[in-house]
Each structure stands twice: as C-alpha cells, then as structure tokens.
C-alpha cells in the first residue's frame, strides 16, 4: 500500500478513536457542572455523591481525549503536509484559537474539578466544572468550524499556488454548514452522555445497589433523553437539507439515489452497485425522500449520476453508515419515549426489563457518532477541501514503511488503551458512588506530611483538615 | 509592524514555557522508577497530577502556533521528523494515561509505573532527537521535505536527547525539593546530583559537537567581534551549574528549581544565537515562512487578549495546589500508617536506595 492509503487509514483510525472521548466528555462535563451546581445550591448529598462518581469516570475519559487529541494536532503536519500547506492561513488560526480558548480553559480547571473539592468552596468548584464544560463546547465550536469549512468553504480566495487566503473571517467561521454540524454534534454528545448515565444508573438499579443515587442519575438521564432525542431529529433533518444544498453528491450517496429527479423514493435498504450505477435488492417507498428532503411531494433531488464517476465517494460506506446512524436514532427515540411513559406511570425505577434495555443502549450513542462522522467524512471524498483540494494531493512525502509502522503502533496502543479504559471504568462503575456520609467524602490519607514537617523542622505543609474518624 | 518577528517572540515564549512546565513533570516521570518506595511514587505523581494536562497543552499550542504563524516549518519539519514525533506522541499517550489509570490500579500498578516512567523517558529522548535534527538541518527541496525517514536520527540528536533527559530530571528533582517533604525530598536532593552531572556534560558535548560539525553555527559563535559577549553564555551556564550543585542540600527549597530554569533559559538563548532567524535552518527564515498578514493579525488579537487570561487562571490553579503535596485518596487507596517522625539524615540513611 502507498503512503496515501496508509495515511488515510491511520487518520481515520486515530480521529475515529479520538471522537469517542469528546462525544463522551462534552455531555458528561455539562452533567457534572449541573450536579455541582445542584450540590452547591441544594446541599442534597445525593447530588454530591453523584457528582463525585461521575467526575471519576469523566477523569478517565478526559485523559483519553487529551492524549489522543495531541496526536491529531501533529498528525495534520506529519502526514498531510499538502493539506496543511494549502489551508494554513484559514485553519491554522482556528486550531490556535481552539487551544487558547478551549484546551487551556479545560486544563486550567480540570485539576480543581478532580482534586480540588476540599480545597475550594462549593461555588468555586461549580465554577471550575462550568469552565471545563464551557471549554469542551468552545473546543467543539472551533473544530467543527474547521471541519465545516473543509466541507463548505466560505470567506476565502484561492491563489495560483493552490494556497487559500482569508477574505472574511466571519464568513469562514460561520460557513454554511457550521451551525447545523455544531448543533448536531453537541446534541449527539449530550444524548450519548445521557445514555451512558442511564445505562450505568440502570446497572446499579438492576443490582439494587446505591439505589438512591442511581435513581437520581437514571431520572435525570432519561429526562434529558426525552428532550434531546426528538430535538436531534429536527436538527438532523435541517442538517440533511443543508447538505443537499451544498454537497448534493454526499446526500445522493446517503440516500442511494443514482438518478436525479422529482418525487424521488426513500430507499430503505439496498446494495449500491457502483460499477452498474444502480441499487441491487432495493426496497424503497415512492416520493418519501422528496417529502423529507424538500418538504414537498414532488421536490427535485440531485442524484449521483449528475457528477462523473471520479467525483463520487465510495457509495456503500456512506449509504450504510447513514442507515446505522438513523437506525440508532430511532431506537434511542423509542427508549426515550418508553422512559417517559414509565415515569408517567410511576414505574421508571422498578421496571426490570427497561433497566436491561437501558444498559444495552449504553454504547449506541458512540456507534451513532462514529457512523455519522463516517457519513460526513467519506461522503465528501474524493475531496478534503470540498471542490478544491483532493485528498490525493494533500498527503505528505513519506515512506510507506514509516507510516505502516506508526499505524500498527496506533492500532496496538489504542486497543490496549481501550481495554484499560473498560477495565478501570468498569471497576469505578461496579464500585459505584461513595456511601453518603456528609462532610468529607475524600478520605485524607495521613502519611508523609507528618513525617515531612519534622524533617526540616518547620511546618509549611498545607494539610487538608482531616475529618474525625478518618 | 513586523508581525513575523512578534510571532517569533510569541513562539519562543510558548516553547520556553512548554519546556519548563512539561519539563518538570516529564522529569518526575524520568525519576519515577528510581524512587525507593511505592508510596514515594504516589506522592511524586500526586504532586504533578493537577498540573500535567495544563503543561502538556503548551505542546498542543506549539503545534497550532507553528501551523498558524509559520506553516512552512509545520509542513516541512513534521514530515521530516516523522518517526521521532510519532515516538514522542506514543510516549506522551502512555505517560498521560498512566495518571488516570495508576490512581485506579491495584493489581497492574507496576505496569502503569513503567508506562509513566518509560513514556516520560522516551518523550524526552524523542524531543532531543528532533532538536538535534533541527540544529543539523533538514533537506528541503521545492517547498517540501526531501529526505528519508531516517534523516531525523543523528549523533547530535542522541546527545541532545541525553541532555534533555538530564535537564528534565534536574527540573523534576528541583520540583521534588520544593514541593515535597521527608524521604521524597531527600530523594530529590540525592538524585539531583546525577541529573546535574548528566545535564552539564551533555550541554558541553552538544555545544562542542555542533561547533565541530555544523560550520554555519560555528561561524556564529567564533567569527567576528561578537565572540567576547557570546562567551558569556557558556560561562554563565557553567556558573549556574556550580550554583545548582551547591544548592542541592540548601534549606532554600525553591533554589534548585529556580536555578535550573535559568540554566534552561541560557541553553535556549544559545540555540537562538545558533539558529536565528531560521525556522527551517538554512532554508526558511521567520519572514519567508510566515503566513499571511491577515492571518497573523487575526491570531495576534487572540494571543494578546487570551494568553494573559490563560496565564492568570493557570497561575490560579498552581496557587490552589500550592505548598507541600499531600496524598489524597483517589480511588481505592486505603489509609496507610503514618511514618515515624525522623530527622533529615536519619531519613536519608533509611531510604533503601542511594544513588549518590
């Protein structure tokens, strides 16, 4: 294989692995901030216990996000020098702003969130949680603006050397697909987080452990899902229509639509045959695609044949990934509605089969996020900057052996990391939230500090007050 | 206004902060396995756990800054140093994640000990190899890197790597003397000497080897009338090294850390003298490599407004965790019995492992 293919596999793998963690932490960070706020304002120890529990899990996921994100900020240069040369004037500043406004904000306050509860007041701890949550959202804004600019470039001029220059920063940032992609991704992260919280809480309810805390978590998560999943359907619909306007070929691949036309059918399932330029084994409903894409019975939709074969993405990948994402969306919608009905009937915490269903749904959000990104990233091929820069021209002059080595290392290291995350994550989950005792949840381990004061004969040690009995 | 020059200063500032900040926490990692007891390792790790993420963020900033301000350096140097950069990233992944997992671990604690220490050591070595390759220069043709994957490795790089390992370890030792007490502090004082010897000898070797093998750099230092003022740099570095050696057992606990910072800054200044004004040595200067003025202005506004705010709240985070590190339970750690109070020398002779 050549350096281009290997670099593509490596980038897809590393960014696909990375996106799992932001998808997780964006939702959980906001959840933790909410819990910290409630703990501060209501003094209800259930909120405190729930907050501490989710901070422990958040810390694991956040660490994974940080270390896998570092890789990406360098990989754009190491593997994609043609790309980084062409777009440096536009995307360089966006990345720079992401680091300055988001990463430092998270890094500056994450220590206080994780280790600082006993060192600062509750209000200050809430503020730190809020800053971390804000940081994750800032980060999402800048990175999604960058990605959206690559999908729907705006506010630029292109010179004879193939370099992009910015004419209008506002237009470049708020490019046509950015608002939709941003809302879609943030909502997806919140939904993913909700179903993780729901699944873990359901596990505790199912085992009849930590019941008080688990009930609170389950109730909050299912409540959030009931609002967010229908909202996501509306946002997703708007995003799809935006894609139809700006990237009609991607949309045609998502729909498996070969011929342009009016009143086009919605293909439920098929095998898109790229050589024959048609679908095999197709099951379709007439007119429905026009209905949901154009909101009219006979609306016109452009098909794949409108562009030459060399301008088309690999259709089956886009087609099936899209169906996985939408299918999961529907499953989660059904679960959210059932949750609402059970709550209305007063059986939300006691329905055993629903607890099992909630546990089973825990990974679905992640799978949908990966599938969705597969749609949007493979759907714009063969371009990396849509319509202007082909992926083949973006790669760096590298030896295939070097890329293969790093790719194998990534495959090994990331799988081990995932294993370790599940191992320790499961342990935190099984152990559950701490028993609610009141004042000092984090036991202070007396040890070196006493010896240390004696060592140099003066007590500058900042000792955290040790609660009675500890 | 000379925007590229301003961004060169901003980059120098960011690199210096990164090297010093991540330096002490990589240094803790390098010293990690040398610490005599597991609970000493707990304390060492705890002392940097709230800060490491912020420290490493300067490295992400470095990548983004290079791309935004000096794209030529970004897309020529990164492919040129593909293998060492990948090695550094893997190393940073392992050591970074070890923070999260080691606190949770009981059975596989030793694995995360090695991941943390090995990752820190490899990251420092890889950074040194990149630095050595950078001083030596990379082949560039037609606006792109034109060498092979193994161009990155050189004897100079290995020397720089050893020097950085020593320097980071010295910063780490200084941090331990400042921020811990008891046996861990004594360990910092002891191990500091070995780190100092490694640092000082590697600084000397790197300077000598560069002067011998890179004529353009030798020209800078030895030709013309600037030779006298420039001679102050190595003299100052030698003086600071001696002072560090004499401060290792001083009661002024911040002294070693402060002096090591000075030593690093002197080394950095030496590099600037050798390489100014190139971002890709002998191929692209800060002016020829800079991005559009519009881009620099856009980023510049952000740097001007945001970086002071960042410095303020990072400073606040350090302030919250000021003073001597105290172990706090994190995960399943059960309370351990308090060590008996002992005097300084008694503690020193009690530690199982003596390096010096």
Structural notes for this entry:
The complex is a heterodimer of chains A (470) and B (356). Chain A is mainly α. Chain A has one domain (3-246, 310-431). Chain A has helices spanning 3-42, 45-79, 81-115, 122-151, 169-173, 178-206, 211-246, 248-255, 288-294, 315-345, 352-360, 364-379, 400-431, 448-456; strands spanning 156-158, 164-166, 261-262, 266-273, 278-285, 300-301, 383-385, 389-390. Chain A has a two-stranded antiparallel sheet with strand order 1-2. In chain A, β4 (266-273) and β5 form a beta hairpin. In chain A, α1 (3-42) runs antiparallel to α2 (45-79), α2 (45-79) packs antiparallel against α3 and α4 (122-151) crosses α6 (178-206). Chain A is globular. By secondary structure, chain B is mainly α. Chain B has one domain. Helices cover 75% and strands 3% of the residues of chain B. Chain B contains 14 helices and 4 strands. In chain B, the strands form 2 sheets. In chain B, strands 1-2 form a two-stranded antiparallel ribbon. In chain B, α5 packs antiparallel against α6 (109-136). Residues 330-356 of chain B have low confidence and may be disordered.
| Side-by-side strand order of the widest sheet of chain A | 1-2
> Using only CA atoms, what is the Rg of chain B?
21 Å
Number of domains of chain A: 1
Q: Major β-sheet of chain B, in short? A: 2 strands, antiparallel
Beta-strand share of residues of chain A = 5-15%
- Provide mean pLDDT of chain A, rounded: 86
Classification by helices and strands of chain A = mainly alpha
- The separation of the N and C termini of chain A measures 61 Å
- Main sheet properties of chain A: 2 strands, antiparallel
For the termini of chain B, the CA-CA separation is 54 Å
Order of helices and strands of chain B: HHHHHHEEHHHHHEEHHH
The share of residues in extended strands of chain B comes to under 5%
DSSP strand tally of chain A = 8
Overall tally of domains of chain B: 1
Quaternary organisation? heterodimer
């Amino acid at each position: 294989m050549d350096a281009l293919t290997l670099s593509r596999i490596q980038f897809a793998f590393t960014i696909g692995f990375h996106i799992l963690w932001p998808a997780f932490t964006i939702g959980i960070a906001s959840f933790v901030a909410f819990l910290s706020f409630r703990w501060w304002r209501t003094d209800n120890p259930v909120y405190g216990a729930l907050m501490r529990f989710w901070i422990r899990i958040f810390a694991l996921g956040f660490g994974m996000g940080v270390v896998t994100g570092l890789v990406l900020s360098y990989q754009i240069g190491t593997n994609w020098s043609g790309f980084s040369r062409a777009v440096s004037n536009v995307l360089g500043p966006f990345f720079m702003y992401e680091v300055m406004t988001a990463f430092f904000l998270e890094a500056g306050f994450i220590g206080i969130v994780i280790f600082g509860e006993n060192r600062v007041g509750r209000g200050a701890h809430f503020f730190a949680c809020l800053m971390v949550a804000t940081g994750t959202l800032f980060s999402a804004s800048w990175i999604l603006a960058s990605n959206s600019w690559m999908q729907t470039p705006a506010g630029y001029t292109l010179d004879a050397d193939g370099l992009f220059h910015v004419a209008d920063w506002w237009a470049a940032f708020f490019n046509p697909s950015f608002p939709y992609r941003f809302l879609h991704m943030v909502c997806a992260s919140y939904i993913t987080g909700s179903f993780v919280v729901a699944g873990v809480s359901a596990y505790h309810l199912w085992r009849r452990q930590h019941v008080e805390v688990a009930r609170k978590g389950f109730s909050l998560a299912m409540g959030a899902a009931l609002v967010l999943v229908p909202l996501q359907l509306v946002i997703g619909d708007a995003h799809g229509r935006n894609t139809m306007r700006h990237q009609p070929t991607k949309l045609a691949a998502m729909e498996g639509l070969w011929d342009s036309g009016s009143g086009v059918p919605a293909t439920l399932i098929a095998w898109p045959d790229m050589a024959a330029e048609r679908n095999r084994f197709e099951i379709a409903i007439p007119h429905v695609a026009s209905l949901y894409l154009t909101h009219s019975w006979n609306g016109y939709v452009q098909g794949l044949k409108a562009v030459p074969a060399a301008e088309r993405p690999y259709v089956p990948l886009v087609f099936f990934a899209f169906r996985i994402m939408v299918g999961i969306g529907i499953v989660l919608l059904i679960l959210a509605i059932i949750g609402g009905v059970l709550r209305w009937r007063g059986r939300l915490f006691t329905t055993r089969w629903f607890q099992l269903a909630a546990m089973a749904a825990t990974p679905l959000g992640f799978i949908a996020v990966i599938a969705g990104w597969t749609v949007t990233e493979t759907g714009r091929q063969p371009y990396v900057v849509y319509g202007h820069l082909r992926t083949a021209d973006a790669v760096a002059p590298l030896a295939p052996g070097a890329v293969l080595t790093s790719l194998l290392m990534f495959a090994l290291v990331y799988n081990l990391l995932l294993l370790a995350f599940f191992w320790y994550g499961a342990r935190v989950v099984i152990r559950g939230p701490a028993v609610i005792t009141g004042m000092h949840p984090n036991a202070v381990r007396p040890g070196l500090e006493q010896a240390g004061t004696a060592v140099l004969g003066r007590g500058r040690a900042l000792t955290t007050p040790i609660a009675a009995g500890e | 206004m000379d925007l590229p020059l301003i961004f060169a200063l901003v980059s120098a500032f960011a690199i210096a902060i990164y090297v010093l900040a991540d330096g002490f926490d990589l240094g803790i990692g390098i010293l990690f396995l040398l610490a005599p007891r597991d609970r000493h390792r707990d304390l060492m790790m705890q002392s940097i756990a709230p800060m490491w993420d912020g420290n490493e963020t300067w490295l992400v900033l470095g990548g983004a800054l290079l791309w935004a301000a000096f794209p030529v350096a970004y897309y020529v140097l990164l492919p040129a140093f593909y293998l060492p950069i990948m090695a550094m990233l893997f190393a940073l992944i392992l050591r970074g994640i070890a923070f999260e997992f080691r606190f949770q671990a009981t059975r596989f604690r030793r694995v995360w000990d090695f991941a943390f220490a090995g990752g820190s050591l490899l990251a420092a070595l890889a950074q040194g190899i990149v630095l050595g390759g950078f001083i030596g220069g990379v082949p560039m043709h037609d606006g792109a890197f034109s060498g092979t994957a193994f161009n990155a490795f050189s004897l100079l790089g290995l020397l720089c790597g050893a020097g950085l390992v020593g320097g980071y370890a010295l910063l780490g030792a200084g941090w331990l003397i400042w921020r811990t007490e008891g046996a861990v502090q004594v360990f910092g004082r002891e191990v500091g000497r070995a780190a100092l010897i490694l640092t000082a000898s590697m600084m000397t070797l790197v300077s000598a080897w560069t002067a011998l093998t890179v004529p353009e750099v030798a020209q800078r230092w030895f030709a013309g009338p600037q030779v006298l003022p420039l001679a102050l740099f190595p003299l100052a570095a030698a003086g600071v090294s001696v002072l560090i050696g004499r401060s290792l057992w001083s009661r002024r606990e911040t002294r070693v850390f402060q002096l090591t910072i000075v030593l690093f800054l002197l080394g950095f200044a030496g590099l600037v003298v050798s390489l100014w004004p190139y971002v890709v040595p002998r191929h692209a200067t800060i002016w020829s490599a800079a991005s559009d003025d519009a881009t620099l202005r856009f980023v510049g506004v952000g740097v001007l407004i945001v970086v002071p705010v960042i410095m303020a709240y990072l400073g606040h985070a350090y302030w919250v965790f000021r003073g001597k590190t105290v172990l706090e339970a994190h995960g399943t750690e059960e309370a351990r019995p308090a060590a008996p109070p002992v005097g300084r020398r008694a503690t020193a002779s009690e530690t199982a492992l003596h390096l010096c």
